[in-house]
Amino acid sequence: MRAWLLAARPKTLTGAAVPVMIGLALAWMDAREFYQPGTFSFVAAALCLLFALIMQVDANFINDFVDYARGTDDRTTRLGPERACTQGWVDTESMKHAIAATTILACLVGLPLVVYGGLEMVLVGMLCVAFCFLYTTHLSYIGLGDVLVLLFFGVVPVTVTYYVQLHEVTLEVVLASLACGLVIDTLLLVNNFRDRDTDREAGKQTLVVRIGAKASLILYLSVGIVACLLGLVFLLHGRWLAFVLPLLYLPFHISTFLTIRRIDHGRELNHCLGNTSRNIFIYGLLLTAGLLLTSIQ
Q: What is the pTM of this model?
C-alpha cells in the first residue's frame, strides 16, 4: 500500500485540486451575483474535483511506467523522488492494470457531468484522457509539456468547471484560468530544471533543455509574477480582494526562486519542488478566498 501511495504522488494532487477550486469559486461568486439561488450544484462540484484528482493519479501512474520503460528513469542517476517501477516496488504488469483501472474510474466519475454540462463533457473527458497519455509518451519529449500544463491544469479545468455550473464562460474566467495554469507550470519548470542534464542525455527536449538554465530561472520567476498581474481583471470589475489576496503568494514564490538559483543542481532541488507545490496551494487558497469573500460583500 505504501508503494502505491508513493506511486500516486499525493503531493502533486494540489495541482489537480487548485484549478477546480478556482473554477468553483468563480462560479459561486457569479451565481450569487447574476443568477437565481440554487443555480450552483454541489454534486457537480464534487464530481469535477473527484475527476481531476483521479486523472492526476492516472497521469502519475502513466509517467511512472513510461519513463521506466523508456529508460528515462534510472535508479542510480535519478535526482527526483523515488519512483515505484524504477525502484522495483511495483512490477510493470501491475502498473498497466493500475493505469487501466484509474482511467476507467475517471471516465465513470466524469460521465455524470453530462447531466450538468451537456454532451460536450464527453469530448472534454476524451481529450483529458488522450492528453494524459500523450503528455508522457510523446509531447513532454518535444518541449510541449508546459503548453499542456497551461491548457490542462489551467484553461480546461477552470473554464469547464465554471461552464458545468453556469453554462457560459466569461473573459474573467479565461484570464483566471491562464493565471492558474502559469502558477502550476512552475512545478514542471523546477522539476525539469533539476533534471535538465539527465533529460538532455536521454534525448528529452523539455523547454528547460531548449532554452537553458539561466532563461529557465527567469521564466520561473516571471510566470508567477504574470499570473498575479492577470488578476488585475478582478480589480477592474471591483473585486479587489480577488486581486489583492493572491499577491501574498509572491513572497513565497520569490523565496523559492532564490533558493533554486542558489542550489542550481542536485537532489537538494527536491526541496524546492515541495516548496513550489506548497506555493501553488497557497495561491489557490488565496484566490479562492478572495473570490468567496467578494461574493458575500
A: 0.92
